[in-house]
Amino acid sequence: MRFMLLFSRQGKLRLQKWYTATAERDKKKMVRELMQVVLARKPKMSSFLEWRDLKIVYKRYASLYFCCAVEEQDNELITLEVIHRFVELLDKYFGSVCELDIIFNFEKAYFILDEFLIGGEIQDTSKKSVLKAIEQADLLQEEDESPRSVLEEMGLA
Amino acid sequence: MPAPIRLRELIRTIRTARTQAEEREMIQKECAAIRSSFREEDNTYRCRNVAKLLYMHMLGYPAHFGQLECLKLIASQKFTDKRIGYLGAMLLLDERQDVHLLMTNCIKNDLNHSTQYVQGLALCTLGCMGSSEMCRDLAGEVEKLLKTSNSYLRKKAALCAVHVIRKVPELMEMFLPATKNLLSEKNHGVLHTSVVLLTEMCERSPDMLLHFRKLVPQLVRILKNLIMSGYSPEHDVSGISDPFLQVRILRLLRILGRSDDDSSEAMNDILAQVATNTETSKNVGNAILYETVLTIMDIKSESGLRVLAINILGRFLLNNDKNIRYVALTSLLKTVQTDHNAVQRHRSTIVDCLKDLDVSIKRRAMELSFALVNGNNIRGMMKELLYFLDSCDPEFKADCASGVFLAAEKYAPSKRWHIDTIMRVLTTAGSYVRDDSVPNLIQLITNSVEMHAYTVQRLYKALLDDISQQPLVQVSSWCIGEYGDLLVSGQCEEEEPIQVTEDEVLDVLEGLLVSNLSAPVTRGYSLTAIMKLSTRFSSVNRIKKVVSIYGSSIDVELQQRAVEYNALFKKYDHMRPALLERMPIMEKTASNGPTEIVQTNGETEASMPDTKHLPLVTQPANQANDLLDLLGGNDVVPVIQTTLPTKPASAGGELLDLLGDLSLSGDPAPAPSVPISQPPFLLDGLSSQPLFNDTSAAIPPMTAYSKNGLKIELTFERTNPNPNIAVITIHATNTTEADMTEFVFQAAVPKTFQLQLLSPSSNIVPALNQGSVTQVIRVLNPQKQQLRMRVKLTYTHKGSPVQDLAEVNNFPPQSWQ
């Protein structure tokens, strides 16, 4: 996988993960163009398209488009499953995930993605395993914070 | 200074902005606050600030001033800091800037951290955006972690290694020992990432590929277990056990089995099993089937398995899910050349896909349809394709029209059908046909002598209906100019002749001249057509008047023509009939090179019309192909030899059909009525070419090849009229005691050149220099580039076939400058 984008129907970017070194300017241009192309697609069309020299696999979940650019030799159908797995992970973590969850907790969405994929490839095919690792990392994060701010967080101080 | 606002609060605030300007203002304010906070080196809130910066970066605002802060976070001891720091590094740091190298040390430390989640962060970051320098520095650490027993780290290390190898391929070797027992792992995460790592290594290095071939049985076993094992909740997806792993294993098997019979055989059974047992009701099962099909088609599988694979694709085509249809068409397109007959069986389904709503599916269906057209199905297929041309989107029309012309040219069952088809394309998609189709069509029409009356009549009728489509109008005006006499005399045999007078015809042509719809080029065609009719019609005065009017046209092109035609009427009237007489049948020139689809449509055996007459011709076609392969295909143009001297001249046309797939370079196919002018056969080794005026004295001859007793000398001439053409004669002599029989000389030149090989004097090079074989080569060098040539020589010597390749580079400058 070259990159993955999440964006809304209004063309607002919610997440971008690049697995190849690309200049900032080029990234912006590609994101803008690709969003336009994907948003113009009609519901009856297939989830695959060719754009520049890449294969694009995209799927819409509620108000969010999940869009991946894969290599020539990658299997498009299994990429759809990868996207679905990521959505399932988000769903389990946030509990019936919606776009707002991803907006307000974008860094967590990234953490989940980074526990699921490295360099565009799946690290672990077990949902349970990925979620457990995130859970443990979150715990570590909580232990880090001093008790004072935890209480503050709970509105008790 | 008050505590910086929290991330969530910032997000909430920014979302309340009603305009872009308002948002920008908020962002700028916050950025200023963050900047000053950074300046104060505040450790407590650095994490929060960077997180906010990352949010603003996602909205599209610049965040580079946070780069160093990310590095500080990474260096912090707190896990929260590291988490955000590494995320920031992945989002903000760019390997193009040296600043990223500052990460290296931190990552190194974190790779050895006591907490596996910290190690995980480091591995992830390195594996996603590590630059080559970082990879070089840290590869050793990754390799260590690849050998750990901690599966959480091992799987990440494997993917990190993949990235390292992608960035610095030379480091691949160092990971080899660690791969030893990767596949004996039970943990699916490690298994999956290991297969990915092995795949990467095998794809990059043939040695690795050889080394890992022995893993095939183990991979087959793992795959088998996945399929046969019962329900495993942890890895189940819609009833299938770990489809992701299955797909990756299938892909690795593909790479290992490619071009290796033993490996391919070892996987035959499991592939058949997966192909037949996988549940196809959901996308996930079809994803596995798809990968299986790709593997079957790529390895050396037995034919039964291949047919199974194509049938799976055929079933895919009938699937309701358009994604499945899409991948099926893509795969079929790849296999249509090699498994043509099997794909033909699904032709009707493919043709149905032309009516699909999805643009990509339609395009693939169209390409595949053209690939499947052959002499047997041409009528039916063309009907469908013409219907498609009628109704498809404009973006397809040009390609479809070209495809129709090409197919019609190759497989037209009759001349009339051919012309009707062309007419149909011109009338339905006339404005989308490519510019070069007009001359091609004109040439085709002139060649169909018996159809002239029919053609001009149909074209005339088409003009009456619609004069907006320029290619159609151009072809029509040309034909009317040429065959107008047939039109008014009502001679048509093929259909009911129409009654039309000379004045009516001239009305139409003059109408084109004045119409707003006519392009300048079209007007030119029309004026010339009117002029030509002056020798075919009797109403010369009217034509004279039209021509003289346009002598003062604003359009320079028209004006020039009109003035010249006027002069023809006034001063050179005696020459007029000769100048405007019927055109001779045109020679077929080279077909369109790059846009032409090289198709054989499964008929390489069947399409030889007369194998008895042309036994030797099949060979040059294949040999020319081989030459092309040897030369890497892309940078030289193959030259097809003309017929050997024993062949009858009239077979020239068929020769052209046979080799019509390959791009010919200026090889004229004589129509039966036009004699071929060949240079006289010279058996005495003299070099002069009576065709040309220039003497060869100026350019020194050279020896192009001298090996095993065969010597090839080249002599040169430059023709007078065209300074871009050089004429080279090869003289082949043989110093051995045995004749060299079946001698064939082939040559290829770089793309900017065009080459024409004329017939050799004979194909026997007599022994002991008793004679020589000569052959003329004409080289067109419009760009005046340095001449280079690769030659292939084949002959039989003392009973055994000999073949050799040589490169000729040291051409004298006068031969190409």
What does this 3D model show about the protein?
The complex is a heterodimer of chains A (157) and B (817). Chain A is an alpha+beta fold. Chain A has one domain (3-154): Beta-Lactamase. Helix content of chain A is 49%, strand content 22%. Chain A is built from 6 helices and 7 strands. Chain A has helices spanning 24-39, 76-94, 99-104, 106-116, 127-144, 147-153, and strands at residues 3-8, 13-18, 48-51, 54-61, 64-70, 117-118, 121-122. In chain A, the strands form 2 sheets. In chain A, strands 2-1-5-4-3 form a 5-stranded antiparallel β-sheet, sandwiched between helices. In chain A, helix 4 (106-116) crosses helix 5. Chain A is globular. Chain A starts with a strand and ends with a helix. In chain A, 37% of the residues are buried. By secondary structure, chain B is of the alpha+beta class. In chain B, the strands form 3 sheets. In chain B, strands 4-5-6-9-8 form a 5-stranded antiparallel β-sheet, with no helix packed on it. Chain B has a 4-stranded antiparallel β-sheet with strand order 3-7-10-11, with helices on one face. A two-stranded antiparallel ribbon of chain B has the order 1-2. In chain B, a hairpin with a 2-residue loop joins strand 10 and strand 11 (800-808). In chain B, helix 23 runs parallel beside helix 25. The longest helix of chain B has 20 residues, at 20-39. Residues 590-697 of chain B have low confidence and may be disordered. The chains are: A alpha+beta (157), B alpha+beta (817). At the A-B interface, strand 2, strand 3, helix 2, helix 4 and strand 7 of A face helix 1, helix 3, helix 5, helix 7 and helix 9 of B.
The CATH class name of chain A reads Alpha Beta
Average of pLDDT of chain A = 91
Average of the residue pLDDT scores of chain B: 82
Query: Which oligomeric state applies?
Result: heterodimer
CA-based shape of chain A: globular
